[in-house]
Amino acid sequence: MPKGIAASPGIAIGKVYILEKENFCILEYEIKEEVIEAEIKRFREAVEESKRELEEIKKRVKKTIGEKEAYIFQAHLLILEDPLLIGATIDRIRKQRLNAEASLRNTLKAFPAKFASAQAGFIQERFRDVEDIGERVLANLLKRPTLSLSHLEEEIILVAYDLAPSDTVAMQKDKILGFATNIGGRTSHTAIMARSLKIPAVVGLRDITQKVKPGSVIILDGNEGKIFVNPTFKQIERYKRSQKEFLSYQRKLETLRSLPPQTLDGREVELAVNIAGPEEIDVALRDGAEGVGLYRTEYLYMNRETLPSEAEQMQAYKIVAEKAAPNTVIIRTLDLGGDKFLSHFPVPSEINPFMGWRAIRLCLEKVDIFKVQLRAILRAGSFGKVKIMYPMISGVEEIEKARTILSEVKRELKREGTSFSDDVEVGAMIEVPSAAIIADLLAKEVDFFSLGTNDLIQYSLAVDRVNEKVAYLYQPLHPTILRLIDNIVKCAHREGIWVGACGEMASDPLFVLILLGLEIDEFSVAPTSLLEIKKIIRGVTWEETQKVASELLKLSTSYEARRFAQRKLSRKIKRILKGS
Ligand code: PEP
Ligand code: MG
């Protein structure tokens, strides 16, 4: 039974659809001089056929999802005009006298080297797009049908090496029962998207694409991170029962929607939600979210050809601010880089993208882009309550620089007579160890902190958050993490500012219990976890969580901490979550 990382809760039972990128068996052979032109013609016809397919998908996506989402296919169409792909392949057919399939495959293989040697900005997402397109043309050359995620005829479980943002945006969500991927960890882009879309998912399965066959039936258990290939009748029956239980459990949780997130002894905390776009706010508010604790704005910049304009950004932030009012929306400024890239904005290839030119570092250098976003946020502030939050802060200087730019933006808006909110609070994400250690200094500079535990754990424990090979080292209860959080909260409270937690730790019942005891004031969680987390908060006393936290702070290894949690907390958590 393949075991991976439980990325999004729920159970799916259904037929496998493999989003296969490396599936074609390509024969390489030399062609005769006299058939070269015919081979080129065959290649050109496959390109034309691919264009027709893409036009068709683009039209459908525009109609069913939206104009913005259809942009990505416009970009794909442009790739089909690109001499780096088309011209180079024709050259290979002509000069090397290779058949069209092998010429195209070799061109695709040479792509990363070409990007690197030309010093052109090598962009992961764009390269994925090129691979995508290449596979489509290959399929047409081989006269093989390609999978179109935007036009599925039956319900499927999607199995893939990984999912690019272009895959998730175009997929016909009502036909996708679940997804399983070879790579990724709980906090990778794919896992976060799965939870946003409320689709059960298991990631980091290593070779699931090799272990299942298209059309075969699997059970995907997003709660436990398990996959059952060709399950027995008995297993299907058992999981159908679990599926039913899961759904009725969800319905029971819905009774908590309007109740306050308050402990049994009366400590009330804020319980907000993490979103990646305006389309997610309605469901979150219906489930009783008290505003947005993390608006990941970078998704607004993805799957398109140009940067979003000030008006467009303002509109997106305004919708969320108006809907969430009187509650607050914390808008995080652009957090590009790491595992999030754009096809239209060249971020140079880096050996360590998570530690490279990303987030606030990029914004402080690309001031024009930063200013447009700040203007849009401040203007949206006239329609509701917004706060600004900077990602990846590593020292006081970055806050100072950002403050200078924000003041300039305010002066410009005033001069123009544009209406905006002048008293927008500003916070820092604490997700870099240096920031956690100087939390006392940073607390004097901002109005609030929010713990980005996904990155804080990654950087403090030196464990790549998207690499499933080291996922076992990703230990939220490592003494380092607990001590850092304890220090951050104490420093913040000493300065009279509040501390939120918006990393995935805040969406986990066990960790929430501990974070409560560490005196976190606000929890911003994945939409799928909102009600479950409220149930935990309402099922404990603050006093007992403080005792738990102080016991944990005395332990010297994550192993002991996990054992403590297992012995002292698991049963309690199960009881709270099961209780009505
Ligand atoms: C984090 O790092 O914990 C966080 C919330 O930000 P992201 O997952 O978007 O990096
Ligand atoms: Mg982060």
How would you explain this protein's 3D organization?
About 2% of the residues have low confidence. The chain is an alpha/beta fold and 580 residues long. The protein folds into 3 domains: 122 residues, Glucose Oxidase, domain 1 (3-Layer(bba) Sandwich), CATH 3.50.30; 109 residues, PtsI, HPr-binding domain (Enzyme I, Chain A, domain 2, Orthogonal Bundle), CATH 1.10.274.10; 324 residues, TIM Barrel (Alpha-Beta Barrel), CATH 3.20.20. α10 links the parallel β8 and β9. It binds phosphoenolpyruvate and magnesium ion (MG). The site of phosphoenolpyruvate (PEP) has 11 residues, from β9 and α17. Phosphoenolpyruvate (PEP) binds next to β9 and α17.
Q: Which helices and strands occur, and which strands form pairs?
A:
Blueprint lengths: L4 E4 L2 E9 L16 H29 L2 H13 L6 H11 L3 H18 L6 H18 L14 E5 L4 H6 L5 E6 L7 H9 L3 E3 L4 H4 L5 E5 L4 E4 L3 H21 L16 E6 L5 H6 L5 E5 L13 H15 L3 E5 L26 H7 L1 H14 L4 E6 L5 H21 L8 E6 L2 H5 L1 H4 L5 E4 L1 H8 L18 H16 L3 E4 L7 H9 L4 E4 L4 H10 L2 H12 L4 H21 L2
Parallel strand pairs: 2-3, 3-4, 4-5, 8-9, 8-15, 9-10, 10-11, 11-12, 12-13, 13-14, 14-15
Antiparallel strand pairs: 1-5, 2-6, 6-7
Bound molecules: phosphoenolpyruvate and magnesium ion.
The site of phosphoenolpyruvate has 11 residues, from strand 9 and helix 17.
